[in-house]
Structure formats: structure tokens, C-alpha cells
Amino acid sequence: MAAAVAVVVGEALLSAAVEALVGKISTEISEFYRSKNLDESLLEKLKLTLLSLHAFLNDAEEKQISNAAVKAWMDELTQALFDADDFIDDIATDALRRKVEANYLHRQTVTAKVRKVLSSPFKRPYQEINSQMQKSFERLEHFAQRAHNLPLEKGVSRSVWRATPTNSAVDDSAICGRDDEKQNLRDMFNHFGELDSLHGLKGLRTLTALPFEFNFWFPGHYLANGVLHELLVALKQLRVLSLSDYRNITVLPNSIGDLKHLRYLDLSSTRIERLPPAICKLYNLQTLLLSHCCNLSELPEEMGKLVNLRCLDIEGTKLQEMPVEIAKLENLQTLSRFIVSKQQHGLKLAEMRKFSHLQGKLCISKLENVFDLSDASQANLKEKKQIEELSLEWSDSILEDSHQVVLEHLQPSTNLKKLTVKCYGGTSFPNWFGDSSFGNIVCLRIEDCRHCSSLPPLGRLQSLKELFISGMRSVKSIGSEFYGGNSPSFQPFPSLETLSFESMAEWEEWNKIDGITSEFPRLSKLSLTSCPKLKGNLASNLPCLVRLDVEDCCLLESEFSGEVDNRNIMRRMNVFNFNSLQQLSLYEIPSLTSFPSNGLPRALKSLVIDGCESLEFPSHEFLHSCKALEVLSIMSSCCSLTSFPLGSLPVLKRLMLLRCENLESISILEEAAARQSLMFLEHLHVYMCHELESISLLDSSTPNLSYFWVEKCDKMNSLPEPINNLSGLQTLYIFDVPNLESIAEEGLPINLRTLGVGNEEGVYCNTAITKWGLDRLTSLSELSIKGEYLVKKLMEIQVPLLPNSLETLIIEDARGIQHLDGKWLQHLTSLKKLKLLRCDKLKSLPKEGLPSSISSLEMMICPMLRASYERKKGKEWSKIAHIPLIISYWELST
Question: pTM of the entire structure?
């Protein structure tokens, strides 16, 4: 893949850079000058000059847009300020290095080495430092004098907007810097990311390696081997380096340690396995992002040298231990995860007390390694008032009394907003859990706490909006202990909007509070998953319930006598009384046989039925009563369904019929009301209905149908004809319909934007492809062709059939094709993306080459192409060398 690099230079206003420089001179540099008896008056003069420049900058930053002289002054001043900052940062960093190394050695009681470090000379002689400082002053003073000859006003306060690139895409307009620098940037990489030239880029401060145009298909980006090392060696002035999402980066070179000015390093979602020890030389580093580095298994031992580190994100890594020296980073403000060590001399929970500035999100994991129970109280979580999200995690829910003591002493601040507890091994929760003083908690998760037989009084949490409970295998009954009281005057869960119970293996009863109108007055979403023994009275009066999901709760419809009457699930749940219910999902309830006779909730808009094979498909009258139903999805359910009556649901917009094993036809009801109802239909998806033979769709009945997908329907022999009368159709997929006799005899719908056709094996219908009128589809932007039959037909026909509007072409499962003829592709001047998927025998691409407009080529499981195209080898390379983005997957992998 071609790796482009986006450089963001000077995105912050220059005035802010000046302020930072003045601050640095006033602190680190001033202290250094005093300690070495250098000329401090020079620093004062430099500060005054910078402040003088600062007075003009707000006005200059706006006027440079329209005044060429001001722009030239700003460009030159920017470079001068950067040079001055580089020099001053060199001094400050060298002084910091000596201090850190001395402190580090002192802690190891290596006295002789400490003296050696403290007495070692600076990398620059002191006289040279003074001389260079004088030159910086004179250069900046020159700009201050020039400012008086420009149409600039002092002290102007104006709002200047600058576009800032996101980390998902970078537009050319967001790249700041000289035009020649931008061009050097674009030329820096050739088509497969190998470094061509770094001339003109040596002074870059911010480097975000991202493709400029290619933010599609796959989230991973790629840098060729060797490029990263060359970048780090060459770009010594970097302050910001982001390589996030470059999935092929597995090793971070030792040269990272030479970026002494670096403040921000983002390696998130790369495949690095470890950080080199040299990274601990980045004494100025403030932010280190390693989130979702799924292979990262260790951190360097000397992490304590990163004295300026404020943010360390290691969420989603494979780390099992953290170096003890993490505890030296007492200025950390963000630490996503703290791992308690089981080693005798490893990182202990008590070390958490040192992080008094932590804020935001914190996860403490491997709490089973707390052997000294006093460590939990020493962690002092209660005083960390800026932590808003806390996760307390044990590795496995083993019955252990010590867990209860640890959790008791890990009481957080009442400022907490989100709390998660995983694999807690105690038999009950501590008193603080569910205490009303935690009035700021809005989200709570309790996961796999298998030995707790009852829930804490969570109903007392006045601000709680989301509650997720899963894996509590010892809970058999939920009642007043959960609500936090049983008085009719007490209102539990006043703010709760989302409630989810999952994997509650022994839960049988859900009891109510007598005399109360509703235990959950604001609940809008309720989910019950894998609660196989749950039966009896469920929460019934839920005035705000909008969505109900029920999955694998096979006894939910049981009578109290123990006899299962599978038809009563809806009645037991009082579903028809949920007047606000808009979404209902029923999963894996194979014994469910019928809907309630008095219908579904009147407000219901979406109904999903999956894995309910015995559920009887309702009558026409029942369907007609569903006045608000817009989405219906039936999957592996309703074995009684043989013919679906289109038009029976008054306002149906989306219909999905998947794996309906006895469905034979989809037909339109012969009545006026049905024709009116079909006016709403927009989306029809039919998949793996092996008995289905026909679908009836008339253009006048379905004018708003824009999406039609039929796949793997073995017996289907015809489609609605003439299909071109479906003038509103924009997306059409007809895949793996082996008995289809004809398609589009009078042409395809003229407004199609996306088309997918073909069978993985065999002939694809008897209609000549020339009758489809592909060349007339001027809106078609994506075409997917499945199987070799249609590919061969397109290559056989001498006249180009595909429209010039095509931007994406996908060829998949053309397993017998060995060579692609390019005559049918050359006229596609708008083609940008070409995907070749599972073309096992494909050896070569067209001898004419691919259209020059292609900017992306993806090849997945095309093994015969590997030798020709991998690593720019093989005689065929020239055919694709012009393509900026090439992605190759030789086998399926995560």
C-alpha cells in the first residue's frame, strides 16, 4: 500500500507557540542559566522581544490571508520561532536528561556514577550556548522591528478559525506549511511506501502517517519495511508522531529514542509486541497511546524515566504485568489500566496512592493478586475525585473471602459516574455498593460475580441510567433487596432507562413491590438473555418501554404450576400493555407457538423474530392490526409460513425473510388496501429460503422500493418482470439463484446505483447479458460480479457493456478464471476501486493494464497472483505500479 504522510505544522495559533516559548525560558532555561552563571540578561531581552512579537500575532494571523507582506513575515517568523524553540528545547532536554539519570542512579546508590553524570559536560559548550542564544535574540528582534513597518495593530483580539485534521482522514487543505514542503511530503513515498526523499522535511514537528484519500474498506494502513526507521532517523525535531492503525508495524526501532523533542506518541492499534528500552530516553514525552496494541506483552523496565508523562493508555493490550517503575510517574493524569502483580517485588495495589492526579477512566485488574489486604485501603481510591469511570476486575470468580475485604476498601469517590465490577469472588457486596451517596453514577455493570446470591440495593442510585447485570449464577430471586426498599412511598430507579440481564443461570423469580405504580418509571429498553429458569411475574407496568429483547429464556412463559404453556409468553409479560413499546425482538424461543390474541402493542415499529421455529405465522387480520409496524424480520422462524402476503402490514417499510424453510411465495394481496400499503415498502431482503419459487412486485404497487436482495433461493425460477419497471430501485443483488430462467429481459432499472449478480457455480440464467442494458445505467457506481460465468461473458463481448459511471468493481469467486482481458475495462475512466476476491486460479491482470483512474486494488485469497505482485517482483508489476493503494490478503485472518 502506498503510505502517505500528513503533516500538521503550526495548526495551533502561532501566538500560543510564543507563549509556550516564553514559559520555557522563564522556568527551565532560567534555572539552567543561574546554575551555570550564564548571562541571564540575555534571557530577559529575548522574553521581551517575544512578548513584543506576541502583541502583533493575533492581528497578523488574520491579515496574512489577504496581505502578502504579512504572510511572508509570518512564514519567516514561524521558521525563526521553530529554530529558536529547537535550540532552547535542546538545552532544556539535556539538563533534564542529566537530572533524570542522576536521580535514577542515586536511587540505585551508585554514588560514583551519579557524580560522573552530574559532572559530565553538556553536549553544547556553554560559550556556544550563549552565542546561539544571542543569535536567536537578534533574529527575533529583527522581526519585531519589521512588524512596525507592516499594517499590524498591537493587542488585537480576534477569532481565527483553523481547520484541524482528524485522525481518520486528512485533507490537503489541512496541511500547513510551505507549498514546497507539501510537495516534498507527497513525493516522499512511492507507490508501496518506500522512502524516496526527506529533503525539505527535516524540520517537521508533527507527523501523522495516514493515507490522504483512502479511508475505506479496511481500517488498517501499511508502511513498507524500513520506512519507519528512516523516518525516525531523519525527523529529529518531531514533537508529535502518530502511527495509529498501521497494522503491519510489529517492531518500533531503537531510533525512537533519538526523538528527544517528542511530546506525543500514538501507536494505538499497531501490532507491536514490545517497546524498545530506548523509548525511556524520551524525557519530554507527555502522552503515550498504546490502546488496542493487541500483541503488546511488556513495557520497558525503566519507564520511571519518563518524568513528564501525563497520559498512558494501555487499554486492549496483552500486558500481564507492569514495571514497578510505573509508580514513579506520579504526575500521571490518565492511566487507563493498573495491573496488580503477583510477583513478590512487582507492582502492588498500594502504589495507587501515588497517583493523586488521575482523572477520567481507570481499570484496576488482577485484583486476585492482592495478598496484603491493607494495600486496598492504601490505594486511597476514595480521594481520587477526578476519576469518572472505574473498572475493578479479578481474573476469575473464585470463591474467596479476601475479595470482599478488598472491594470494601476500594470504595471510590462519590463523584464517580461509571462503575464496572468483574469476576468478584465474594458472596455479598460491601455496604457502599448501591449507597445513595453515589448520586452521580449513571452507568453500572456487574459481570460474572458468580458467588453473590443477591443483588445490592441499586434502586437507590438516583442518577443511574444504564444497568447491565450478567453471569450472576447464584441469584435465584430479585426483589426488594434489589430495589433498595419495599415501602409504597419509595420510588426505586427513578432515572433508569436501560436494563439488561444476561446469563443468569439460576434466576427464577422477579418480584415486585406491592403498592407501587412502577418499579422502573423511565425504563425505555429491557433485555433478557439466557435466563433459562426465569418465570413468573415480570415488571409489567413500564410506561416508557420502547424496546424489548428476549433471547433464550425458554421458561419465561411457564405457568406457576410448572406446566409449560408456550403460547402464554406474551401474556405473562403483558407485552400488549406496553403502550410505548416500539421495538420487540424474540430470539431462540423454539417452544413459542403463538402471538397474543389481542395483538401487539399499537406503537410497535420493529419486530424481530429469530429461532422461533414453532411460532405460528399470524393471520391477515392480525397483521392488519399492526398499524405502526415498519420493520419486520423473520429468521429461522415460523415454519408454518408458506406464502407471505405483501400489503398485509399497513405501513411496512423493511421486510427481511431469512432461512424461512417452508416459504414458497411472496405475493401481493388482491385488495385495494394492500396496494396502498405497498406504497411504503422500501427494502426487501430474502436469503436462503430454499423452497421459494416466486416473488410478485409490480411497479405501480411498490414505487418506493429502493433495495431488493435475493440470495441462495434454490427453487426460485423467476423474478418480477419487467423488472425495469421498478424505477425507484437503487440497489439490486441477485446471487446464487441457480434455477433462475431469466432476468431483465427488457433491461435493468435505469436508476440503479449498486448491482450484484451471479452464481458461485454454473450458468447464470438464460438471458443474454446484452439485454440488461448495463451501458444505459448512468447512475451505477458499484458492480459486484460473482462466479466465472458472467466474467467470461463480459470478456467475450467486444463492445464495452459497463457504464462509464462505474467507480467500484468487485469480482468474486471467479475460481476458474486464469487471465483477465482488459478490453471491457479500459473505457471505465471513473473506476477507482477494484476488488478481486477468492479468484483461486487468477494468474495475471489485463495485458493492456488497468485503467489509470484506479486508486485502490484489493486482492483477497488470489494465491496465483502472489508471486507476480508481492514486494514489487515479477514481470506483471508494471500493470499495477501506478495504483496508490494495494491491499493483499492471501488467507483469511483476524
Answer: 0.83
